[in-house]
Design goal:
With about 450 residues, the protein is mainly alpha-helical. The protein has one domain. It has helices at about 10-40, 45-80, 85-115, 115-120, 125-140, 145-160, 165-185, 195-220, 235-265, 275-310, 310-340, 340-345, 350-365, 370-385, 390-400, 400-410, 420-455.
Length: about 450
């Protein structure tokens, strides 16, 4: 694996794109798990979609715990590679994997033990939806260890500069999920239709296979994992460093999910259809934010390695290149969601009322796609510098403002249900503008410092 050497030397745009494309593929593989589930669950009915969407919030909330060791591994490995410190690379690998296993076991236990109370939070009146949601939550809770550990394996490879290996491995899991979903959800031959339970079983089975393939690959031939003793007692320095890097991003993710849960609770006053609409619509919108997330991770690795190598000029050029690409992606996503809303939404639900709501949802969200893309990519640049707090401050602040904005705008005298969608869209616009401006000041300050040093040297 020599791909990592190209991040601190050679063509910048080529290096970013080469690293980002497999990462985007991996992100789309993760998104495709949900889209595949929704495609087949949608054939069962909107109640089943609402159940999966409701329980799915807790898998989404679990991402907050995943991000602590994930970001810690990604940034720690990348910066250590930039400094050419092999021992530190191995230390970040060992401690991030030890931490994720512990967090997975704790979170899994909470989901299973408190399943009824967790689903009860949403105050859903439909008993069928509640029962299906509880069943789905238990199943994903059982397989939570695989759901947690795979992103950390992926981030270790990405931080090192090898984004191809996790892309291939995650795609194996996606392929299996695509095969299992229709069989287990709708039934085939002697296998009975299991609905949402089948969707859960298909997902955790596929994630388990991904974990096993990662372990097989690591044991076979991956130099950075050689002589890493995972049973060795962790030390406080590396655990603290990983938590320091990952905690702000984890809090951001947790806050985002909790705010989204409150938004869903607001939506519940209009019935279960808007909940299903939000679930499907958010997955369609994920086409753009998953693309941006791929560049976020690539930019974090690129900036991290060049920050470790003290190459600020490459950081500046890499960031500008990534933002240019993300701008084009955001404009394309805007056009797609606004003009292709109905055919896109109809792929997942064929009921008239959800489609009508879904078209409006996608068109309103389409207006914020450019700002969302540049915000996500900029967060990756902050992460690469080890400055994970600024993106978290911006995200938590404006995502939190969605709740009062939704309550105000959704009143009958104003916009009704559409007010909820507008609160989400406009908060993304403000996040993009503010975070990009913040990072621009950091770049400008450091470029001026470099110029001053060059003048002094001359």
């Amino acid at each position: 694996m020599t791909q990592n050497n190209k991040l601190t030397e050679g063509g910048i745009t080529q290096a970013l794109v080469r690293l980002a494309l497999p990462i985007m593929g991996t992100a789309f593989a993760q998104m495709a798990y949900n889209l595949t589930d929704l495609f087949w669950i949608g054939r069962v009915g909107s109640n089943a979609v609402s159940a999966v969407g409701t329980a799915g919030f807790f898998a989404w909330l679990g991402m907050a715990f995943i991000l602590i060791p994930k970001i810690g591994a990604e940034v720690g490995v990348a910066q250590s590679v930039g400094r050419k410190d092999k021992d530190e690379v191995k230390n970040y690998i060992r401690h991030s994997l030890q931490l994720i296993v512990l967090l997975a076991l704790l979170y899994s236990s909470i989901l299973i033990i408190f399943r009824n109370q967790l689903i009860g939070f949403f105050t859903i009146d439909d008993l069928e939806v509640v029962n299906m949601a509880v069943s789905y939550l238990v199943i994903i809770g059982i397989g939570m260890i695989f759901y947690f550990i795979n992103p950390v394996f992926t981030s270790i490879f990405n931080g090192y500069g090898d984004s191809t290996t996790p892309f291939i491995i995650n795609f194996i899991g996606l392929g299996l999920n695509i095969i299992l979903d229709p069989i287990l959800i709708l039934g085939i031959g002697p296998i009975p239709a299991m609905g949402v339970v089948g969707a859960g079983i298909a997902t955790i089975t596929s994630q388990c296979v991904v974990t096993l393939v990662f372990i097989f690959k690591i044991r076979k031939n991956v130099p950075i994992f050689e002589k890493v003793n995972f049973l060795k007692k962790p030390n406080f320095y590396h655990v603290r460093r990983i938590v320091k890097l990952g905690l702000p991003v984890a809090l951001q993710s947790a806050a985002f999910t909790i705010f989204a849960m409150f938004i869903t609770r607001i939506l519940a006053s209009w019935g279960t259809v808007p909940i299903a609409v939000q679930k499907v619509g958010s997955q369609i919108e994920a086409i753009s934010w998953m693309t941006a997330s791929g560049f976020q991770t690539a930019l974090a690795a690129f900036v991290g390695q060049n920050y470790g190598a003290k190459k600020w000029n490459r950081i500046y050029k890499g960031y500008m290149s990534a933002i240019g690409i993300m701008g084009l992606v955001g404009i394309f996503a805007t056009c797609l969601l606004i003009f292709g809303a109905k055919p896109l939404f109809s792929l997942f639900i064929d009921e008239e009322e959800p489609i009508r709501y879904g078209v409006v949802y996608l068109q309103i969200l389409g207006l914020s796609q450019l700002f969302m893309c540049i915000e996500i990519a900029t967060a990756g640049a902050f992460n690469g510098l080890g400055k994970t707090i600024p993106p978290s401050i911006v995200s938590i602040t404006f995502n939190g403002l969605r709740i009062p904005a939704a309550l105000i705008l959704s009143t009958e005298t104003l916009l009704g249900l559409e007010g909820v969608w507008w609160s989400i869209s406009m908060s993304s616009v403000f996040k993009g503008i503010i975070l990009v401006t913040w990072f621009a000041f950091i770049l400008l300050r450091n470029r001026n410092l470099i110029k001053d040093k060059q003048l002094q040297a001359a």
